[in-house]
Amino acid sequence: MKKPVTLYVSDLDGTLLGADSQLSQESVQVLNNAINRYGALFTCATARTPATIVPLMERVDVKLPMIAMAGAAMWSQTEGTYKHVRTIPESVIEQVVAIYAKHGARPFVYRQKGAMIEAYHSATLSTQEREFVIPRNDGPFKHFVIGEGYGEACHKAMIVFSIDRYSLLKAVYDEIVATVDCSPVCYHDIFDPEYGILEVYSQGTTKAHAITTLAREVGADRIVVFGDNRNDLPMMAIAHHSVAVANAVPEVLAQAHEIIGPNTAHSVAHWIESDARRIAESAE
Question: Do residues 147 and 133 make contact, with C-beta atoms less than 8 angstroms apart?
């Protein structure tokens, strides 16, 4: 009997990570056992960039590229480089920035410079933006450039990002959806529902597209995904088996094939280890 090749893909915040937005030591140990003892093909898919993905996942023996920026690129930790980068046309950047300005808001525009992302913001930062920038600035993977426009077109844009009041961002999102050829995502901040996050990607960019690409590269014939928020719905739709943590939003709970324990109970790591062990033992 042929052993099925399963690709396990987990969201990070609210799913694999705990309430402190960190990966628990228990989850690290369980995942490494699944990978190294049972041969689990595991990676993560997140809206985060390598600036925070790498330190969060550095204790896990992830051998596959990690899906960053909700599918706008993959980050290969073994090679220290981006793969499958999906860039946003400058004409789209101009349209999106104009819509933000119309609503009295300004986003960050993330541009790739080799292995580095430079995140441009054209004005003074709000309190929420400063709190976002401070722990992420001037590391090996991301640098913020504040008050100097939105960068040069010679450096390709990967994402337009903003954090602000949800009601304001929802209005921006609605106009972008109605008028611009791109893939925007708007959702509540999991830590403060009054605030929201709006991300704009090139047309067709999703975690689902990136996962499908990666599954094809590794020869997977079964995809299992784990999520908690609305931006995980597209990848759940293409998975052979979709798993929601108990703390997921209602839409995710309704779509999932299975609901497991909450993110605070190391639930994703234990599910992967159990499934990988079952497959390995059945193939013996």
Answer: no
DSSP 8-class letter at 228: -
- Say if CB 223 and CB 7 are below 8 A apart: yes
The side-by-side arrangement of strands in the sheet containing 66-68 is: 66-68, 73-76, 81-83
Half-sphere exposure of 50 (CA within 13 A, CB side): 26
Q: Examine the domain organization and report whether 101 and 116 are in the same domain.
A: yes
Rg (C-alpha) for the chain, rounded Å, is 19
240: CATH: 3.40.50.1000
Residue 140: which CATH number? Answer: 3.30.1240.10
Q: State the 10-residue block means of pLDDT for the chain, 284 residues long.
A: 84 96 97 97 96 95 96 93 95 97 96 93 92 84 92 93 96 98 90 92 95 97 95 94 97 98 98 96 81
pTM to 2 decimals? 0.89
Structure tokens at 108: 């960050």
